[in-house]
Each structure stands twice: as C-alpha cells, then as structure tokens.
Design goal:
The chain is mainly beta and 179 residues long. The protein has a single domain, classed as Jelly Rolls, CATH 2.60.120.10. The chain has 2 helices and 15 strands. The strands form 5 sheets. It has a 6-stranded antiparallel sheet. It starts with 7 loop residues before the first strand and ends with a strand. Bound molecules: 5-phosphoarabinonic acid and nickel (II) ion (NI). Its EC number is 5.3.1.9. Pfam families: GPI.
C-alpha cells in the first residue's frame, strides 16, 4: 500500500491552506467600503480587510473547504467583518469552525430575524441553508475561521445588499456594543 502525503496542509496558526488547486483572494477596503456604516478616510483604500482561501477537489457534487482570515481593524469604531451572504440554494448548509481569535457569527433569516454566536478557537457552527451568515472580528487579534460547504450552495450577495443585516457591531474602549 502506498502512503501519500496529504494533498493539503491547513495551517491553523498562520491562517493559510497550502496545496494544489488552492484559491486565494484578498478583500480590500475599497471593494467593500459600502458594507460599513461610515467611511474611514484615514484607512487606505488598498487595506486588506480579509482574505479567503478555498480548495476544490474537482468533479461534481463536491465539498469545498475554506479558511477566512479577518484582520482586527475598526472603521470609526465598527468591527471589521465579512460581506455576508445567503447561499443561492437555500437548502444548502455550511459548517464554520473557529481556529484563532475572537468574533461573532451573525445569522440572518429571510424574515429579518437575527442572532449571533460567539466564535473562538474550537467553536463549531452549523449554518442551516436558510440563514445568511457574516463573521465579525471583535478581538484584538486576527480572526481565523475554517469552513466546509458544498459547491452547489453558491453565494447570494444581492439579497444582503438589498436587505442588510439589521445590527452592527462596534468596539468602544475595548467593550463590544451592538447597535
Ligand atoms: O463560503 C463561505 O461562507 C465563506 O468561505 C465566505 O465566503 C468567506 O467567509 C467570505 O465571506 P463573504 O463571502 O461573505 O465575503
Ligand atoms: Ni457561505
């Protein structure tokens, strides 16, 4: 029997996935400045707000793995966060798991009902297909969150642009404030 090295290396501490077929993108402030309540003119438009790694085994009916790395930046007091999305297929769930840092995972249903779970190293989150999901970095360090979902899920950002998450997360004097 041949023993092979794993195809992918998941580095929880440095926040990268390495291997063949790994996709990686950086989300810059200028690409998502509209998601925050206010603009911060002190923040360079090219600031990297978060990075996403994912890998795709290929074939049909596949599972994707990903890692999201969210930097501890505040925008006039508002905590940095992902854009947030529903899945195009509202039947498709996703699993998130905290790798490092501290944050909140916001869940929003199509009726506008919202709740959140704390995210930390070792936390595991089952996101049912009917919930939009957004990660917020509430800590002083980088937040790293792993994810697993089916490619068939797709990303629907339009619904969130049209009907945004009703709450925002701020940090004032080290304390979290949800407004
Ligand atoms: O598939 C997911 O839910 C994640 O990989 C997200 O795409 C990632 O966290 C980035 O968030 P968003 O796609 O909302 O910008
Ligand atoms: Ni998703």
């Amino acid at each position: 029997m041949q023993i092979k090295s794993p195809k992918y290396i998941y580095d929880f501490f440095n926040g990268v996935i390495q291997g063949e077929n790994v996709k990686h993108y950086k989300k810059l402030y200028k690409e998502i400045d509209f998601i925050y309540k206010t603009r911060d003119n002190q923040l360079s438009p090219d600031t990297v707000m978060y990075e996403v790694y994912s890998f795709n085994e290929g074939g049909s009916n596949i599972l994707l793995w990903g890692l999201t790395v969210i930097y501890p930046i505040t925008i006039n007091g508002e905590c940095n966060m992902t854009r947030g999305h529903f899945h195009e297929d509202r039947e498709e769930p996703e699993i998130y798991f905290g790798c490092s840092g501290e944050g909140l995972l916001l869940y929003l249903d199509s009726q506008g009902k919202i709740f959140a779970e704390k995210v930390f190293k070792g936390s595991l989150h089952y996101i049912h297909g009917n919930y939009a999901h957004r990660l917020v970095n509430t800590g002083d360090d980088t937040l790293r969150v792993g994810a697993c979902w089916r490619e068939a899920a797709g990303h629907d950002y339009k619904s969130i642009d049209e009907k945004p998450f009703p709450n925002r997360v701020y940090k004032k004097d080290g304390k979290i404030d949800i407004a």
